[in-house]
Amino acid sequence: MSYSIWIQDLPACIQSLDDIPDDFLPGVIGERSDFIQRIIEVVPFADFTDPSRGLIDGSDFSIEIEMNAEQVETCNFSLWGSSVGIGLVAGIVEYLHLPALHSGGDGIFRPGDVAIDFKRWQEYRDQVAGEPVAP
Known about the structure:
Elements (H helix, E strand, L loop, with lengths): L2 E6 L21 E2 H11 L10 E5 L3 E6 L4 E2 L1 E8 L1 H14 L3 E3 L11 H16 L6
Antiparallel strand pairs: 1-6, 1-7, 2-5, 3-4, 4-6
C-alpha cells in the first residue's frame, strides 16, 4: 500500500476537503516537461526515462511520479518505504508552490505537518495489514 500525494489545481484558501465545491473542476497546472525539469532541480537523481512515469529510488524508499498528459492536471506521487521519501516529496511540493492533497491527515498536504501525517498513515497501514510492512 502506497502513501499518495496529488498536486493539482485547487480552490484558493481551502482548509479541508469539505471546502472544495462539488462542481469544482481542476484546471491545467502546467506542462509535463516543465514539471520534470523542476522536479530534477530538487531531486537530480529522479529518473524520467519514461516522461509519464518518473522514479525516485533511495536505499529505503521508492517514489513513483505519474503525469499522464503533456498538459498536466494532476501530478501523482506514490511513496513506498521510509519517511525520507515523504521529505523529498514535501520539498518538491514546496518548490513547485502548488497545492496538493494526500492520503493522510485531513487530506490537504501541508509540508510542515507531513511527518506527523505520514506516521499516522503508517500506523493505520500497519493496523490494516496486521503487521508492519517492510520498506
